[in-house]
Amino acid sequence: MPFGSYWQREEIMPLNQLEELRVKRLRWVVRRAYDNVPFYRKKMREMGITPHDIRRIDDVVKLPFTTKDDLRANYPFGLVAVDKSELVRIHMSSGTSGKPKVVAYTERDLENWINMVARCLYMIGVRKEDVFQNLVSYTLFTGGLGFHYAAERIGAMVVPTGTGNTEKQLQYMVDFGTTAIHATPSYALRIKEVAEEKGIDTQNLPLRIGCFGAEPWSDNTRKRLEEAFDLKAFDSYGLSEMNGPGVAFECEEQNGLHIWHDHYLVEIVDPETGEQLGEGEKGELVLTPLTKEAMPLLRYRTGDITYLMGFDRCSCGRTHPKIHRIIGRADDMIVVRGINVYPSQIEHVLMNLPEVGDHFQVVITRNGSLDEITVRVEMRDEIFTGELRDFSRIRNNVMRALQKELNIRVNVDLVEKGTLERFEGKAKRVLDLRKEL
Amino acid sequence: MPFGSYWQREEIMPLNQLEELRVKRLRWVVRRAYDNVPFYRKKMREMGITPHDIRRIDDVVKLPFTTKDDLRANYPFGLVAVDKSELVRIHMSSGTSGKPKVVAYTERDLENWINMVARCLYMIGVRKEDVFQNLVSYTLFTGGLGFHYAAERIGAMVVPTGTGNTEKQLQYMVDFGTTAIHATPSYALRIKEVAEEKGIDTQNLPLRIGCFGAEPWSDNTRKRLEEAFDLKAFDSYGLSEMNGPGVAFECEEQNGLHIWHDHYLVEIVDPETGEQLGEGEKGELVLTPLTKEAMPLLRYRTGDITYLMGFDRCSCGRTHPKIHRIIGRADDMIVVRGINVYPSQIEHVLMNLPEVGDHFQVVITRNGSLDEITVRVEMRDEIFTGELRDFSRIRNNVMRALQKELNIRVNVDLVEKGTLERFEGKAKRVLDLRKEL
């Protein structure tokens, strides 16, 4: 039930009330973890603390961290705090190797989750009159069902297409008059490409809102998405361990993502030392969900790099703080000759160059004892037909721009449009051939 | 909210009350179609009738039929009776050719649908303690989300795996302690096969309930499924035009499917003449949904062949009539030398022969002016290694059994296990090569 131009009144809760609620919830969740999850009881006992030691928000630093490996080691239900009969849903994260990370939900967890995603959609203007096409995987991935339930709750007409069959997807957009979409940015750019092949003018579709998530993307990609579909593009952040999407989301300002402070306790820590960092300092996002019944994780290390943008009230009126869009994911970070490189930095540079198309790939090789980084870049069609001289000029431009951003020598291969693999879900941008040696 | 051993009290509504409710609803739905869908107003005017002419259940025969072609011709929203802003969901049937059949739902339609599928699941014993693994496609196919929402409503732990990745699916069954599954019968048999390859004993899984639908299957297949997984196998019937699954379902008796009489008006008609047939007479199932707000279809020709099993109260206590399991789908019917053959008849015969494996294919060819039907049959491993003489004896057995059932000469090819294609969704059993001439 909307509350004015907000989905829930908690979005504009006065800061002192919000703080009170957060303290209450933090104590509740710590008690829950301690009483019902042997893993946490043991850890807290080893650290010499009990739930009584957690009285204020600042006390969170006394609590143990939880890592992705902890989740894997406790597969499938080791961190669950309720009787199995209370669980109503299982999701799994797309584990690249080893055991998957299982997340579990009670009925109330789902209710909270639906409302958090609904807050996000309502915040960017999705209403019951909208036609919401959900172009991400359903089933075990949280992105599909997470957005599906929320858009339905708002009363939008949900078109649950999932990924794949891009031509048909485009046809449905036309036939159903789709006004809002949810996709990974790379799949959206792929859709635009197919539309061009089919002669469908994506700028003339009734689309007005795009939610893009599951991979970090930059403001330069935003410009491309907004131009391609003539819509407003919003950054969506979430992870299955924190329910799924709906953890943080851009408001109409498109400047930072509101993180739902009544449901998540936010910290930024130094990835090496685990020390809490202050406002504006870049580090790893650490989240403690404050309302999760089924799996009350404490100080979860997301591996995502960002910073807190400060607590100034946003012009949208929401009292929940903002984080900067994800700068990189620790999992995606490449170390080349001792220097940390995020694919999102490369994306940021490339998407700002008009000659460069929408697709690229990063290849890391080892030449003797030296790491080499090569960025394969698709050119726009109209550029590629140019003279050889031009070609070499563009290549130098790209190389210089990348080297300036990354502080490292980079090889650049210009390739024809359509050369590189396309993705319907999360794009796999990095090919690290060093591992195969 | 369960009502004793029933999900909803309507399941055991006394017949006179049920009849009263049905008449009221029929009049409501006819009025709705007439007032809001130009297609029906035009048709009814041409037939010289108005909603006032529909006063009793028997008056349904005065109404026009609706066909699959009508749905296609009115793609996408021509038959929708509400403002588009009232729609909250779109599904589509897997149209094999031409335009897809779009179905639309209001919030109330979804609520009714969820409860109908929940009735079915609750009827066969699914409870909040169960782990329900949903092994069918999500997204636009109604089978996935239809069962998902209903199992969740009951409070079971839903594992939304979808199809594909059969080895992992098996691992989840083991790891999560899956007690109930939903799949097509052919995918279930495929899972059993993969389990054998991996050395997983499917009889020792905690499975106890199986819901099988989306393709017609026989009692002989039931025996195989029940033995393979040591569970009780129930037949699920539905179609997207009638919301999806949850139209009719077997109760614990496993003898006929209760069709929810408060939501669907059932007729059996002669497929040629459209004349209503009586109890026990085989014909085409025609359904009029009595509660659909978004798309109030009148007398929808399902193309499915079955018969009404009579109105004797079932030992389960439900007052809703039963239909026999689907004998064949008009769409699947093959005409060979003037004789109608349903793949389900062939399945029925083969699954009763112990030498025969779980997979077969029907190939139709034209030899000059003569149609030929060849059934390719996978043998069980242990049989195939036998002597040539034995081999020929089995082939003759299969041939004789098929000819007895179909009244037509049939070629039989015995093939090794693993030769024929496997399916994760609806099996494609028939390869009609005549069409390619």
CATH superfamily of the largest domain in chain A: ANL, N-terminal domain
Number of domains of chain A: 2
Query: How many DSSP E strands of chain A?
Result: 20
Task: State the end-to-end CA separation of chain A.
Answer: 57 Å
The description of the largest β-sheet of chain A is: 8 strands, mixed
- What's the level 1 CATH class of the largest domain in chain A? Alpha Beta
Instruction: Name the shape of chain A in a single word.
Output: globular
Q: Record the strand order, biggest sheet of chain A.
A: 4-3-5-6-7-8-9-13
CATH topology of the largest domain in chain A: Rossmann fold
Strand content of chain A: 15-25%
Chain oligomer state:
homodimer
What CATH architecture of the largest domain in chain A would you give? Answer: 3-Layer(aba) Sandwich
Low-confidence stretches of chain A: none
Largest interface: A-B, 33 and 33 residues
What is the radius of gyration of chain A computed over CA atoms, rounded to a whole number of angstroms? 22 Å
User: So how many helices of chain A?
Assistant: 11
Class by SSE composition of chain A: alpha/beta
Please, what is the average pLDDT of chain A? 93
